[in-house]
From TrEMBL:
The keyword Cell inner membrane does not apply. The chain crosses the membrane at residues 243-265, 277-300. It is found in: Membrane. Keywords: Membrane, Transmembrane, Transmembrane helix. It is a multi-pass membrane protein. InterPro entries: CorA-like, CorA_cytoplasmic_dom, CorA_TM1_TM2, MgTranspt_CorA/ZnTranspt_ZntB. This is Magnesium transporter. One of its GO terms (cellular component) is membrane.
Length: 303
């Protein structure tokens, strides 16, 4: 647990709790000014974007979706970051995956020592949202490269890569939409409406950034959906063409079986004593093959 002081005459405290270094229990946050329900929410590792306020303790709990900086799997995911806001204190709860955000928060605080608790909190939300944009640009570049590869060759490896990007875009889209809803709810909260105009302006900036991110993730998700559908159609068309080719080959080869079977019967047949009869039979094969292929090509091209 770390503590930093800021504001005029260092009147405010910023408390940082790292749950992978300090076990997060009720005793960790033992404080007469924090309700047990707030502590329970903060201890829930599976909790997603939420706003909860305890009027008696004047404690505002906000769980915000942040980007998982470490891409351990084949796609990006999000993680929750917890804030507990009080009039003279901001508590930030992170883990190994979200610890990288503390450096950005600390850099902002070093440059704005006289900020209020609310403005610092709203700025933290903006900083979290801004971490998404470089990843969105990287995903966009990956999408373009993958699209070019798929145009050249639609194989399993490239399709799996497209599926991974599509899965990651879904995670980011859901997280971005939840953040927008959270900020809109926060903006209309009666506690926030009593904040200074400068603090509310910072919240508006955070909401604008979150909406921009939500629009980008929605656009990316739509593009991935269209790409996935297009290449599925390409694969289906390739399958149909392969089946058509195999059908044509099987029909042509069936002619060979019919003719050889006819001349293989143990009865008197035409050209049995004709020299070089096999030449005429082969010629008949070729002529029939050609005629059948022309007819089948005409039928396939017509449809």
């Amino acid at each position: 647990m770390q503590e930093k002081y800021f504001g005029q005459d260092n009147a405010f405290r910023w408390v940082i709790i790292h749950t992978d270094k300090v076990e997060l229990t009720a005793d960790t946050l033992a404080d007469d000014t924090i309700d047990n329900d707030i502590i329970a929410y903060a201890m829930d590792e599976n909790e997603r974007a939420i706003v909860n306020y305890d009027a008696d303790d004047q404690a505002l709990l906000v769980i915000y979706n942040a980007l998982d900086h470490y891409r351990m799997s084949e796609h990006y995911e999000t993680i929750p970051v917890t804030f507990i806001v009080q009039p003279d204190r901001l508590i930030t709860i992170v883990n190994d995956k979200s610890e990288y955000l503390i450096a950005h928060f600390n850099q902002y605080l070093m440059q704005h020592r006289q900020v209020s608790v609310n403005k610092f909190f709203f700025s933290c939300l903006t900083l979290i949202t801004e971490r998404y944009f470089p990843v969105m640009d990287a995903i966009d570049k990956e999408k373009d490269i993958l699209n070019r590869k798929l145009r050249q060759r639609t194989n399993k490896h490239n399709l799996f890569a497209l599926s991974d990007l599509e899965t990651g875009s879904v995670y980011l889209q859901v997280a971005a939409n939840q953040n927008v809803l959270l900020l809109e709810k926060l903006k209309n909260h009666h506690v926030i409406r009593r904040c200074d105009p400068e603090d509310r302006e910072e919240l508006n900036d955070a909401l604008i950034e979150a909406k921009q991110l939500a629009s980008m993730t929605q656009l990316n998700a739509q593009i991935f959906q269209q790409l996935s559908g297009a290449y599925n159609n390409v694969l289906n068309n390739n399958l149909n063409e392969n089946l058509t080719t195999l059908t044509i080959i099987s029909i042509i080869l069936a002619v060979f079986g019919v003719i050889t079977g006819f001349f293989g019967m143990n009865i008197a047949l035409p050209m049995m004593k004709t020299p070089h009869a096999w030449v005429y039979i082969v010629g008949l094969f070729v002529i029939l093959w050609g005629v059948i292929k022309v007819i089948l090509d005409y039928i396939v091209n017509r449809h």
